[in-house]
């Protein structure tokens, strides 16, 4: 039995096939293209016994009129809803679809306008998709959502939903025809992403047209350019198979390096999951950049939050083209990879990465120290860092009635290399790798109480301010203070979620 698919003539199966237990979104710029897609999906479900078709805000006739009597599944259960009730019907879709489908139903198609989602924020849209995906998975059904209207606003909102949607595509006008843009599409053949195809209507069917400018080959022939090739660690794609024939996946850095050392203009994507790997990765990037030149794209994907600002700077100065933060959705990663294509690395590569690595390492000590020790370390790091790492040295004046020693009882230093001391009634802080625009956020993380309630403000100190701490020995210096105990936990109230009332089910049309 052929798997359900969008019956677009000339399209390979990996770009149109849909797998059971999954939700697919296709956003069309108008109801007429949506009808064409719906008809093609019904034709592609010709081997199925039962299909549910629901249309919100309009009737089913425009879509069904595109089919001949012999096309489509054996039986179609049809439901439709008026424009006034479509928002309630959409809210209750996860409850209505189990009632509308039978034991032999393997596919449901729901067509609705973008306007039915008015007032839905991203969180609500995500929860709704998760509920639909859970039902589709439990029922082993394909759920195809055909949305028509303003594709430019809806399609970007769907990209982060890749965990609950197996595919997101859009159909919009392009050079007198239509363009089918697959943001990503998952099925039994694997995963494809960022592929565009020109299609047109031929005798009430969609057919692919070959457009060399839109569908340029993704991999060069033997001896040609490799600029469209992606060489990546398997972990980068979160367990997904290669996204297309242009992707080559390898296990770990060791598996990736032999291929990367042959690259000329390819995109090399490496993964990092812990901070202890930073120095080794910096050396690896430096070698690749030195040996393979400025045309190769070197991208680092953070699998777990482990990189500080200074670490990112180090990787970029050692030849990296881009650092992708942790928790970046896969579709967003692909978009970011597009931004570095056809670009050359513009940095100046150091002859030896070791001085850079040493400059980006935080001091080996952290916490509360004496003023003399603070002065020594801060002076060394400020002189050493130069433009390599932007660190902050601050003087904070306690509010009237508080002594500096009392404010330090609210201080909690967690990061390696951050220091504090008391000097002349002030609290002085050294924050390693802290940018100017991140100082207030860092202060908010360092103190248990709001820092503005403890201090009148802060002053950013320059090198000569730190050197001035070398004044006469009569200046008081507070030695290492005991770390204050964590405050006792505060009881919090229990929040009980009250479910919304179930919306009116969609039962405005009879099946046929």
Q: What structural class do helix, strand and pairing data support?
A: alpha/beta
Question: In total, how many beta strands?
Answer: 19
Distance between the termini: 24 Å
Count of all domains = 3
Query: What general outline do the C-alpha atoms trace?
Result: elongated
What is the overall pLDDT average? 83
Name the CATH homologous superfamily of the largest domain: P-loop containing nucleotide triphosphate hydrolases
How do the strands of the widest beta sheet line up side by side? Answer: 3-2-4-5-1-6-7-8-9
CATH T-level fold name of the largest domain: Rossmann fold
Helix tally?
16
Question: How much β-strand is present in the residues?
Answer: 15-25%
The largest sheet is: 9 strands, mixed
Summarize the amount of helix as a percent range. 25-40%
Second rung of CATH, namely the architecture of the largest domain: 3-Layer(aba) Sandwich
CATH class of the largest domain: Alpha Beta
**What gyration radius follows from the Cα positions, in whole Å?**
30 Å
Give start-end ranges of low-pLDDT stretches.
212-224, 472-512
InterPro entries: BcsE
Protein name: BcsE family c-di-GMP-binding protein
Pfam families: CBP_BcsE
Describe what this molecule looks like in 3D.
This protein has 3 domains: 13-209, Rossmann fold (3-Layer(aba) Sandwich), CATH 3.40.50; 230-356, Rossmann fold (3-Layer(aba) Sandwich); 362-470, no CATH class. A hairpin with a 2-residue loop joins strand 17 and strand 18. It has 512 residues and is of the alpha/beta class. The protein has a 9-stranded mixed beta sheet with strand order 3-2-4-5-1-6-7-8-9, sandwiched between helices. A 5-stranded parallel beta sheet has the order 11-10-12-13-14, sandwiched between helices. It has helices at 31-44, 61-64, 86-91, 93-100, 122-139, 151-158, 252-260, 278-292, 309-317, 330-339, 353-360, 371-385, 404-407, 439-446, 451-454, 463-467; strands spanning 22-28, 50-56, 75-81, 105-113, 142-148, 167-174, 177-187, 190-202, 205-209, 230-233, 247-250, 267-272, 297-302, 322-324, 367-368, 392-398, 419-423, 426-431, 455-460. The protein is 28% helix and 24% strand. It is elongated and about 95 Å long. It contains 16 helices and 19 strands.
